[in-house]
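Quick one: co-fold with 26Q.
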Amino acid sequence: MDFENRLARVLADMGTTLDDATNAQVFCALLRATRDLETAMRPAAGERKLYYFSAEFLVGRLLRANLMNLGLVDEVERILSAHGTSLAEVEDSEPEPSLGNGGLGRLAACFLDSIASLGLPGDGVGLNYHYGLFRQDLSRGVQGEEPNPWIEPESWLIDTGTSFSVPFGFGPLTARMYDIEVPGYENGVVNRLHLFDVEDPAPAPEHGIAFDKGDVRHSLTSFLYPDDSDEAGRLLRVYQQYFMVSAGAQLILAELEERGFAPEELAEHVAVHINDTHPSMVIPELVRLLTERGIAFEDAAAIVERTCGYTNHTILAEALETWPMGYLEQVAPGIVPVIRQLDELARTRTGDERVAVIDDSGVVHMANMDVHFSHAVNGVAALHTQILVESEMRPFAELYPEKFSNKTNGITFRRWLMGCNPALAGLVTSAIGDGWKRDAAQLEDLLALRGDAVFTQALLDVKGQNKERLAAWLRAEKNIQVDPHSIFDIQVKRMHQYKRQQMNALYAIWKYLQIKRGNVPNRPVTMVFGAKAAPAYTLAKDTIALLLALSGLIADDPEVSPWLRLVFVENYNVTAAEHLIPAADVSEQISLASKEASGTSNMKFMANGALTLGTLDGANVEIAELVGRENVYLFGRSSEDVIDLYDRGDYRPWDFWQSDPGLTEVLDFVCSPELLARGDAGCLTRVYRDFVAKDYFMALLDARDYVAVKERCLADYEDRLAWGEKTLVNIAKSGFFSSDRTIREYNRDIWHLS
Ligand code: 26Q
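Sure, here it is.
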């Protein structure tokens, strides 16, 4: 049956027709027709199957992505336009699944797309959070958090009817498995994302995101990473993690048996991947289940070590998980003896206390357990892996040199170019054909068009169209006005001190003061921010308050507003990113060198023809190497300098503040009467005090250089053809950052799926 008939049938089932249906009903019918088509398709098969364990899968809206991979977008557009609507209008009815915080979760989603598109056998394993990550509310000038319910009566979730019993300390709890289909790009493959859920989930809280964390049986899957600032929150996190990995491990053994293999053969037929430490308990859980099936502990541990791979995503100490043994005894008593045995086994390999699984205060170090009992460990960009091997995990790298490798992150070009930027995708295809859609490295063919003024102008025109589109979207969705002829300078990512949105705020103040003095720029600049702050992260929330106060001050100042705008896009998520990234001129990637493991928005901006303004951190290093220094705007101290400064412990922000009158003026403005009239005094004072007394992520160290290089970048924008050529080189070189390339490397070096 063709898709049009399928759709008509579903609509008839719903008691309507394409002509009579609302956009919401058409969305619902498209969802059902697509899902039904996919359920009839088969997963990739092979000798070995991957299970990618992750606490987050930030998949974004799924209708367009699924239709694209099924090769149905053109047909659906044709059907819809005959009835006076379009995919863009219809997909606005789709709630975005809210199953991740940021980069790590979005990476997992890009990986699932690439695994299926390469025809590899691999499923995701995660949790079905009902209210997801919070929805951000900025209406009061500070961040408020609201539940984000995304599961509607008709959704992408398929109730498989399969369930597993998870043995918690308080007794067993049933984990019910829901699946989301993951189609490959035009290859007939459909893999799966398995999301485990409790049977009787708690209703959403009426207001805010406070809920009964003690009511584990019902609230386990309510929210993604409940606030872990209190004990109940931390315990619930352990419950979530064990629930996910115990159910996932049982699924693996059940499927292994179905495929006709013995538990002893696990490593030959299964690869387990641990996405950061959140799923680490899968190691002791698999060992426990294997020993239950009669395998001796040492053998089980060896099998599990040959099965598992682990990716580290951060070197920030606060994100390295450790759990007191007492928590584990309460939550998952079944794996406690296993963890003790694993600790002893690791101690037979080394006497180095720094790499112990259980330290002398009885705390379990999840990352240490991962490194001892995985056969492969990787960082997510060349610099990050180098820092892991040379400093953060040095004792491990000396003990197990063969385990360590780098796997530079990637993004799926299906969503991040073909899906979100059809104008650029069309232009690229008209120039080099469509081979790049399967093999992003072919984007390099664009380099032949360097010096072709007509093509360069066409690139600039596409950017102009995308800026108009973004302006229309911001007006309609967020009630924000922007000028498409201004330079769009965009920083979108989680709010964190190390990402240094506060340094970008200092630039805004500096520019504001310049314009007040009559130093107006060549062309107006629109600074765009989008970011959620963790609910318990005070300084991050304070920085949002500062940016909101600045936004209002600038907008209401008739001398400044024709030249500068600062807009803060509320509730930044994947859908917002898909509108923002294609329209960016400047991509802000300004983390303190050594702190951003990789970054992935840097890759998305590059592929969409924005120029990077950044530090030599994470994957920015590789971007700069690929495009050459003349096609990227670099500033700031090197990672070596920064690591030295931390080692010596002699960074003093107040020296900068006192010795540099320009900086003093900008900093003092944070607590000026003008801003205090608009923003919460407590928030602004905390930001100010942190700058001068602590500045742990050294914004003041790089602030001067940042302002200077940003000014040079904005001035360069005026030579339109030269700028267009730089964007051409960036797009042409971005193919390296395809997640297809990343997944090929994981498969070649770690998973060996086929
Ligand atoms: C840990 C303990 C307690 C509560 C929460 C957490 C927690 C939650 C989320 C720790 C880490 C995360 C997410 C980390 C993350 O998104 N890391 C990013 O991963 C990207 C993909 O590799 C990289 O590109 C980014 O550089 C990295 O910051």
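If it helps, The two ends are 33 Å apart (CA to CA).
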